[in-house]
Amino acid sequence: QLQLVESGGGLVQPGGSLRLSCAASGFTLDSYAIGWFRQAPGKEREGVSCISGSGITFTYVDSVKGRFTISRDTAKNTVYLQMNSLKPEDTAVYYCAARAFRLCAPATGYMNWGLGTQVTVSS
After folding, report:
1. CA atoms 108, 111, 117, 118: torsion sign
2. Cα–Cα distances in angstroms (integers) from residue 115 to residues 15, 97, 107, in the given order
3. How far is residue 5's CA from residue 13's CA, in Å, rounded to a whole number?
């Protein structure tokens, strides 16, 4: 059974950093693309970044380019989202999801979702 579990969220001051983890089980990371999404209060969920089954990365939100980096450790079957220079507008619940394909896309085709981890950026 495909399962994803996020961790690493928390409260951080503006300008700080967090690294989110998405631990996968029931499949290997080279089989599916994995995306990170976020949903802020009162807003729609948006695709933040994705790593394909072959390890190619994409970032879909202009405001996080240069600050957020997606990566993976295939030995640990875990995908990471390194978030630097955090801003209050980055506050959201962050989710990871597996896509039904090895290729990335910003929103469609994601079939398995974690429960999310809360990221709060505040002084």
Report:
1. positive
2. 26, 10, 17
3. 24
End-to-end CA distance of the chain: 40
Q: What is the pLDDT of residues 80-96, one digit of tens each?
A: 999 999 999 999 999 99
Pairing of strands 10-12, 117-121: parallel
DSSP summary character for residue 56: -
The number of residues making up the chain comes to 123
Q: Would the CA dihedral through 8, 111, 50, 75 be positive or negative?
A: positive
pLDDT tens-digit map of 18-41: 999 999 999 999 999 999 999 999
The rounded radius of gyration (Å) of the Cα atoms in the chain is 13
Chain-centroid distance, C-alpha 80: 7
Token duo for residue 33: 């693309």
Q: Indicate whether 1 pLDDT > 90.
A: no
